[in-house]
Amino acid sequence: MSSKIKVMPSHFTATELAQYLQKLGLESTALEPTLDTLTKVLRKHLVIFPFENLGMHYSESHIVDVSLPSLFQRMVVEEKGGSWCSGHNGFIMEMLRAIGFRAYVCGARLSLAPVRESQVHSVVLVVPSDTNGATYLIDLGLGLYGPVWPIRLRHEEAVQGASGGEAHRLVHARHPDSVIKEGADGAVGDRGDDLAPWSQYWAVEMRLAEDKPWKRVCYFTPAAEIFPEDLQDMSLVVSMRQTGLLWSNVFVIRFFEVEGEKEMGRLILHHNEVKKRGVGNMEVEDVEQLGTEEQRVAALKKYFGIELTEAEVKSIHGRKAALPSA
Asked: How much is the pTM?
């Protein structure tokens, strides 16, 4: 499969890559585009840069800007938080290219049955240099339940989730509403082997525990390559869509590592509460209840190191996601 992904230059410079890796606590001079490097970058990125939708609510435009210069300035230079799907996946893909990986972003569709979601999600496909051409998927845009390990692009390939028996896997699967004819191996048409697995339809699945069923998270096909302009359009659509959890709530989700553990915990701000999900189980600890906007703004700084300006704080007034003012 590696022959199907060209080596492409990154939009980020070597200096910008070094700044990013410094934030992750990694040395740029020692990194090769291997599977181990991909794993380290993915997990460190999840720890340093949260999944959040603050720009949707705490900005004058209420549009989450996922252009690469804006993301670098916000995340690396100003340390003002992270982003959401289209921001994180586009950003890390360019950083991986700067390291030397062959990588690209492809469009995906979240599985939110019975609602049919438009294609506003994405995943990143990466070929490490030491895997004999094997392709791996990463996705930093699923928030609380996103994969924390690269997943090989192979049917029923599974990896451990963040904690508590969680797991993710890839399977050949089409969206249930698709009318495209598909062969038994997941390839489109009668001669899918000519293009497979690039013509195949895939789904990311997740289970919350070993005794829980697998559930579809999103659908994608590797042939659906998208570009920075597409990611910006995706972000624009989600920013302006007046339905769903992101419109009605403020979210910040940051992963954290525990020394000596492969599992990861999560610190979560969801609307008016801060919760903590540790490693080893699925129990959730209540950290703090937030009754006012002032308390939520203080919690962003206290727990996530995100400090909003007075103008940003005022921007949420009158929106559905706003809390009462003191």
From this structure: 0.93
